[in-house]
């Protein structure tokens, strides 16, 4: 009988990832394994078929040959599936299959090829404080960060120079021990070596057996123009070193923009409050206001009210990811005179009397508000 296509056996397309292949085999293994179906020859056959497909398609070399030449390209792939009893298919019992294929569910276990799993190093975070001007224009910054590096004296082994760690006798170097719990075999971290797979009898006195030393290193960080508070810059591979030869983690530089004495940022726009005198608000005027590029003239028309917004196009911030430059929005605040002299008070009183004589020509908003308030009081019977 002709063999079925391996991808068809697992119910996958030919571009399936290795993770997809493992997931599909897990599902079929749990369903058809002989330990769960001891008297079902069809289930036994399906398990053998799925195991063969899994072993070929998770091996990069065999999968490449199979994709090119089909079953003829992997003629020896099925050699390990003959003979044996119901619990000995593919060279192992259900508990062996469970430990190899499902071990990552419980953490630890063996890496492909029977070696110890390596662990990626931890990611690090560095808070970088910038002024608004630096965040807007960008800059190159050198930072010093504390980090763990491989011990130069023991080469990261943790053992005294000239000695080597010994294989843990409890787990035989796997870092895991297997506990039988009813039908399932569950892997747990070895209590003697704590998952390392080895025991150090004579520790390196420099790193005290950890295989790591704490050091500081200097890194250059290119801050792009336009970054904002909370943005992160990722420096790949600049985090903590990995365990047991694992890859290092990453360093994330977190941007913190300092408060500015004049400007407030909102996305790509800048806001600022501009105090103007009572006279300028009434008569109008023109004066200089600061921007991040220099000075510009702001023209205030006569009769300007406090809180009026004036927008200056393209005087804001260019976004870090591209796009139009933001605006500068100036909010004018009319400043009430204080510390008046007696003569100034007299002049203001005279001015107010002249305003009152002019009726609502000089203060239309106030007159309109008073009329609405009067109507409200009458309605409420007040």
Give the topology:
Layout: H1 6-10, H2 18-32, H3 41-57, H4 60-69, H5 94-101, H6 103-106, E1 124-130, H7 132-137, E2 139-150, E3 166-167, E4 176-181, E5 184-189, E6 198-199, E7 212-223, E8 232-235, E9 251-257, E10 264-266, E11 269-277, H8 278-283, E12 285-291, E13 294-300, E14 309-312, E15 328-335, H9 342-357, H10 364-380
Parallel strand pairs: 1-9, 11-15
Antiparallel strand pairs: 2-7, 3-6, 4-5, 8-9, 10-11, 12-13, 14-15
Helix pairs in contact: 2-3
Structural description of this entry:
With 382 residues, the protein is an alpha+beta fold. Among the domains are: 1-71, Helix Hairpins (Orthogonal Bundle); 124-153 and 210-257, Urease metallochaperone UreE, N-terminal domain (HSP40/DNAj peptide-binding domain, Sandwich); 263-335, HSP40/DNAj peptide-binding domain (Sandwich); 342-380, no CATH class. The protein is 27% helix and 25% strand. The strands form six sheets. The chain has a four-stranded mixed β-sheet. A hairpin with a 2-residue loop joins strand 4 (176-181) and strand 5 (184-189). Helix 2 packs antiparallel against helix 3 (41-57).
């Amino acid at each position: 009988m002709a063999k079925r296509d391996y991808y068809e056996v697992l119910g996958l397309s030919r571009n399936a990832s290795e993770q997809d292949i493992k997931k599909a085999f897990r599902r079929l293994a749990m369903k058809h394994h002989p330990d769960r179906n001891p008297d079902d020859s069809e289930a036994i056959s399906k398990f053998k078929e799925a195991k063969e497909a899994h072993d070929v398609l998770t091996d990069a070399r065999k999968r490449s040959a199979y994709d090119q030449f089909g079953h003829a390209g992997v003629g020896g792939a099925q050699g390990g599936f003959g003979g044996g009893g119901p619990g000995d298919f593919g060279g192992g019992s259900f508990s062996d299959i469970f430990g190899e294929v499902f071990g990552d569910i419980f953490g630890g276990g063996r890496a492909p090829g029977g070696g110890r799993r390596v662990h990626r190093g931890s990611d690090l975070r560095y808070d970088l404080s910038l002024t608004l001007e630096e965040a807007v224009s960008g800059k190159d910054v050198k930072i010093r960060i504390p980090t763990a590096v491989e011990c130069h004296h023991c080469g990261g082994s943790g053992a005294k120079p000239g000695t080597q760690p010994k294989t843990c006798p409890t787990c035989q170097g796997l870092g895991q021990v297997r506990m039988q719990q009813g039908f399932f075999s569950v892997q747990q971290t070895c209590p003697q070596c704590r998952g390392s797979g080895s025991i150090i009898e004579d520790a390196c006195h420099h790193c005290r057996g950890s295989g790591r030393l704490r050091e500081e290193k200097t890194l250059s960080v290119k801050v792009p123009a336009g970054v904002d508070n909370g943005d992160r810059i990722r420096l790949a591979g600049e985090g903590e070193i990995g365990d047991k030869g694992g890859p290092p983690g990453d360093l994330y530089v977190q941007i913190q923009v300092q408060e500015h004495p004049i400007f407030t940022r909102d996305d790509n726009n800048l806001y600022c409050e501009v105090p103007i005198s009572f006279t300028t608000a009434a008569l109008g005027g023109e004066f200089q206001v600061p921007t991040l590029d220099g000075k510009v003239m702001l023209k205030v028309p006569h009769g300007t009210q406090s809180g009026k917004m004036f927008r200056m196009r393209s005087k804001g911030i260019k976004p870090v990811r591209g796009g139009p430059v933001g605006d500068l929005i100036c909010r004018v605040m009319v400043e009430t005179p204080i510390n008046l002299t007696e003569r100034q008070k007299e002049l203001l009183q005279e001015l107010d009397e002249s305003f009152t004589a002019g009726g609502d020509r000089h203060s239309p908003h106030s007159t309109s508000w008073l009329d609405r308030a009067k109507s409200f009081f009458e309605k409420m019977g007040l």
